């Protein structure tokens, strides 16, 4: 029982790390393009935190949330 809980916890930690890396990559890309993309938009998935630049995807590649659920940030 306890080892099962631990394995779920570590899976979440890996996922969280990947999410952080993704957010960092988006932030860096945004800074790099700042000169010519003043109105660049980012869309945040409220369910899993996935961020898509420019346009929300038809569905979230991480959690399959619909495009209309994405929030512009
Ligand atoms: Zn999502």
Please provide a written account of the structure.
- This protein is an alpha+beta fold and 73 residues long.
- It has one domain (2-72).
- It contains 1 helix and 3 strands, in the order H-E-E-E.
- A hairpin with a 6-residue loop joins strand 1 and strand 2.
- It is flat.
- The protein binds zinc ion (ZN).
- Residues 45, 47-48, 50, 60, 62-63, 65 line the site of zinc ion.
Q: How many domains make up the 3D coordinates?
A: 1
Bin the strand percentage.
5-15%
Helix content: 40-55%
The number of helices is 1
Largest sheet: 3 strands, antiparallel
- Which regions are unreliable across 5 or more consecutive residues at pLDDT < 50? none
Mean model confidence by pLDDT: 79
Element string (H = helix, E = strand): HEEE
Report Rg: 15 Å
Bound molecules: zinc ion
The tally of beta strands, per DSSP, is 3
Shape: flat
Structural class: alpha+beta
The termini sit apart by 41 Å
Task: Please list the strands of the largest sheet in the order they lie side by side.
Answer: 2-1-3
List keywords for this structure.
73 residues, single chain, 3 strands, alpha+beta, binds zinc ion, flat
Give the secondary structure arrangement, pairings included.
Blueprint: H1 2-32, E1 42-44, E2 51-53, E3 71-72
Antiparallel strand pairs: 1-2, 1-3
The structure holds zinc ion.
The site of zinc ion has 8 residues, from loops.
